[in-house]
Protein backbone atom coordinates (compact mmCIF):
# COMPACT_ATOMS: atom_id res chain seq x y z
CA UNK A 1 0.00 0.00 0.00
CA UNK A 2 0.93 3.63 -0.23
CA UNK A 3 0.56 4.54 3.42
CA UNK A 4 0.11 8.25 4.05
CA UNK A 5 2.52 9.40 1.34
CA UNK A 6 4.88 10.88 3.94
CA UNK A 7 8.06 9.59 2.31
CA UNK A 8 6.89 10.56 -1.16
CA UNK A 9 7.25 14.23 -0.25
CA UNK A 10 11.04 13.72 -0.38
CA UNK A 11 11.09 12.41 -3.96
CA UNK A 12 12.68 14.83 -6.45
CA UNK A 13 10.21 16.91 -8.47
CA UNK A 14 11.48 15.37 -11.71
CA UNK A 15 10.42 11.87 -10.61
CA UNK A 16 7.29 10.17 -11.88
CA UNK A 17 5.66 7.82 -9.40
CA UNK A 18 2.90 5.28 -9.80
CA UNK A 19 0.93 4.41 -6.68
CA UNK A 20 -0.94 1.16 -6.10
CA UNK A 21 -3.29 0.35 -3.25
CA UNK A 22 -6.56 -1.48 -2.85
CA UNK A 23 -7.94 1.52 -0.94
CA UNK A 24 -8.94 4.57 -3.03
CA UNK A 25 -8.84 6.86 0.02
CA UNK A 26 -5.21 5.88 0.69
CA UNK A 27 -4.32 6.50 -2.96
CA UNK A 28 -5.89 9.94 -2.89
CA UNK A 29 -4.31 10.92 0.43
CA UNK A 30 -0.84 9.79 -0.64
CA UNK A 31 -1.02 11.47 -4.05
CA UNK A 32 -2.25 14.72 -2.53
CA UNK A 33 0.54 14.71 0.04
CA UNK A 34 3.23 13.81 -2.52
CA UNK A 35 2.02 16.37 -5.04
CA UNK A 36 -0.15 15.42 -7.99
CA UNK A 37 2.52 16.58 -10.47
CA UNK A 38 4.75 13.65 -9.39
CA UNK A 39 2.05 11.02 -9.83
CA UNK A 40 1.93 9.22 -13.17
CA UNK A 41 -0.68 6.59 -12.22
CA UNK A 42 -2.98 5.92 -9.29
CA UNK A 43 -3.91 2.25 -9.49
CA UNK A 44 -6.57 0.68 -7.30
CA UNK A 45 -5.64 -2.99 -7.41
CA UNK A 46 -5.44 -6.21 -5.39
CA UNK A 47 -1.77 -7.31 -5.39
CA UNK A 48 -2.85 -10.97 -5.33
CA UNK A 49 -4.26 -10.47 -8.84
CA UNK A 50 -2.08 -10.08 -11.95
CA UNK A 51 -1.41 -6.47 -12.86
CA UNK A 52 -3.18 -5.15 -15.97
CA UNK A 53 -1.24 -6.13 -19.12
CA UNK A 54 -0.61 -2.45 -19.90
CA UNK A 55 1.60 -2.29 -16.77
CA UNK A 56 3.77 -5.30 -17.61
CA UNK A 57 7.41 -4.35 -18.12
CA UNK A 58 6.75 -0.70 -17.28
CA UNK A 59 8.54 -0.03 -13.98
CA UNK A 60 12.24 0.43 -13.20
CA UNK A 61 11.57 -0.24 -9.52
CA UNK A 62 8.73 -1.33 -7.28
CA UNK A 63 8.81 -0.82 -3.52
CA UNK A 64 6.97 -3.04 -1.05
CA UNK A 65 7.68 -1.50 2.30
CA UNK A 66 5.68 -3.02 5.15
CA UNK A 67 3.16 -4.71 2.85
CA UNK A 68 3.86 -8.45 2.95
CA UNK A 69 3.23 -8.95 6.68
CA UNK A 70 -0.20 -7.31 6.28
CA UNK A 71 -1.32 -9.66 3.50
CA UNK A 72 -3.38 -12.74 4.41
CA UNK A 73 -1.85 -16.20 4.26
CA UNK A 74 1.56 -17.67 4.88
CA UNK A 75 4.71 -16.57 3.06
CA UNK A 76 4.23 -19.22 0.34
CA UNK A 77 0.79 -17.89 -0.57
CA UNK A 78 2.36 -14.44 -0.98
CA UNK A 79 4.61 -15.71 -3.80
CA UNK A 80 2.01 -14.64 -6.37
CA UNK A 81 2.36 -11.06 -5.10
CA UNK A 82 6.07 -11.22 -5.92
CA UNK A 83 5.34 -12.82 -9.32
CA UNK A 84 2.84 -10.10 -10.18
CA UNK A 85 5.29 -7.36 -9.26
CA UNK A 86 8.07 -9.04 -11.27
CA UNK A 87 5.86 -8.99 -14.37
CA UNK A 88 5.44 -5.22 -14.03
CA UNK A 89 9.20 -4.57 -13.83
CA UNK A 90 11.44 -3.81 -16.79
CA UNK A 91 14.05 -6.49 -17.53
CA UNK A 92 16.62 -4.66 -15.39
CA UNK A 93 14.11 -3.51 -12.76
CA UNK A 94 14.38 -4.01 -9.01
CA UNK A 95 11.83 -4.99 -6.39
CA UNK A 96 12.74 -3.81 -2.89
CA UNK A 97 11.15 -3.33 0.49
CA UNK A 98 10.90 -4.51 4.07
CA UNK A 99 8.55 -6.64 6.11
CA UNK A 100 8.13 -7.60 9.76
CA UNK A 101 9.07 -11.20 10.49
CA UNK A 102 7.27 -13.49 12.88
CA UNK A 103 9.64 -16.46 12.76
CA UNK A 104 13.39 -16.60 13.35
CA UNK A 105 13.56 -13.26 15.16
CA UNK A 106 13.05 -12.21 18.78
CA UNK A 107 10.34 -9.68 19.51
CA UNK A 108 10.45 -7.88 22.85
CA UNK A 109 7.47 -8.34 25.20
CA UNK A 110 5.59 -5.36 23.76
CA UNK A 111 6.28 -6.55 20.21
CA UNK A 112 5.12 -10.07 21.10
CA UNK A 113 1.86 -8.69 22.45
CA UNK A 114 1.29 -6.52 19.36
CA UNK A 115 2.12 -9.42 17.05
CA UNK A 116 -0.35 -11.66 18.86
CA UNK A 117 -3.14 -9.05 18.78
CA UNK A 118 -2.51 -7.97 15.17
CA UNK A 119 -2.38 -11.56 13.94
CA UNK A 120 -5.54 -12.49 15.88
CA UNK A 121 -7.39 -9.51 14.39
CA UNK A 122 -6.10 -10.23 10.87
CA UNK A 123 -4.20 -6.93 10.64
CA UNK A 124 -0.99 -8.97 10.24
CA UNK A 125 -0.55 -12.48 8.91
CA UNK A 126 3.11 -13.16 9.61
CA UNK A 127 3.55 -15.52 12.55
CA UNK A 128 5.43 -18.02 10.34
CA UNK A 129 7.04 -15.49 7.95
CA UNK A 130 10.82 -15.96 8.01
CA UNK A 131 13.85 -14.62 6.16
CA UNK A 132 14.30 -18.08 4.63
CA UNK A 133 10.72 -18.15 3.38
CA UNK A 134 10.98 -14.67 1.90
CA UNK A 135 14.29 -15.52 0.22
CA UNK A 136 12.66 -18.62 -1.26
CA UNK A 137 9.68 -16.81 -2.80
CA UNK A 138 11.88 -14.01 -4.12
CA UNK A 139 14.26 -16.57 -5.66
CA UNK A 140 11.35 -18.20 -7.51
CA UNK A 141 11.01 -15.03 -9.59
CA UNK A 142 14.45 -13.33 -9.47
CA UNK A 143 18.08 -14.31 -10.07
CA UNK A 144 19.61 -11.79 -7.65
CA UNK A 145 18.13 -11.70 -4.16
CA UNK A 146 19.52 -9.88 -1.13
CA UNK A 147 18.05 -9.84 2.37
CA UNK A 148 19.22 -8.33 5.63
CA UNK A 149 17.53 -8.77 8.99
CA UNK A 150 17.61 -5.74 11.24
CA UNK A 151 15.89 -6.44 14.54
CA UNK A 152 12.55 -8.02 13.64
CA UNK A 153 12.43 -6.60 10.12
CA UNK A 154 13.93 -8.01 6.95
CA UNK A 155 14.93 -5.61 4.19
CA UNK A 156 15.11 -7.09 0.71
CA UNK A 157 15.96 -6.38 -2.89
CA UNK A 158 15.52 -8.57 -5.94
CA UNK A 159 16.51 -8.11 -9.57
CA UNK A 160 17.17 -10.18 -12.67
CA UNK A 161 13.68 -11.40 -13.48
CA UNK A 162 13.45 -15.10 -14.33
Low-confidence sequence ranges: none
Helix run count: 4
What's the CATH first level of the largest domain?
Alpha Beta
- Could you give the order of the helices and strands? EHEEHEHHEE
CATH topology of the largest domain: Rossmann fold
- The total number of structural domains is 2
Number of DSSP E strands: 6
Mean pLDDT, rounded to whole units?
95
Question: Fraction of residues in helices?
Answer: 25-40%
Write the layout of secondary structure elements.
Elements: E1 17-21, H1 24-34, E2 39-44, E3 59-65, H2 79-88, E4 89-100, H3 109-121, H4 131-139, E5 142-150, E6 153-161
Parallel strand pairs: 1-2, 3-4
Antiparallel strand pairs: 4-6, 5-6
Task: Fill in the keyword field for this structure.
alpha/beta, Rossmann fold, 2 domains, four-stranded mixed β-sheet, 30% strand
What does the model show?
This protein is of the alpha/beta class. The chain folds into 2 domains: 1-45, no CATH class; 62-161, Rossmann fold, CATH 3.40.50. It is 27% helix and 30% strand. It has helices at 24-34, 79-88, 109-121, 131-139; strands at 17-21, 39-44, 59-65, 89-100, 142-150, 153-161. Helix 2 (79-88) links the parallel strand 3 (59-65) and strand 4 (89-100). The longest helix has 13 residues, at 109-121. The chain is globular, with a radius of gyration of 16 Å. The chain starts with 16 loop residues before the first strand and ends with a strand.
Task: Provide a brief overview of the structure.
By secondary structure, the chain is an alpha/beta fold.
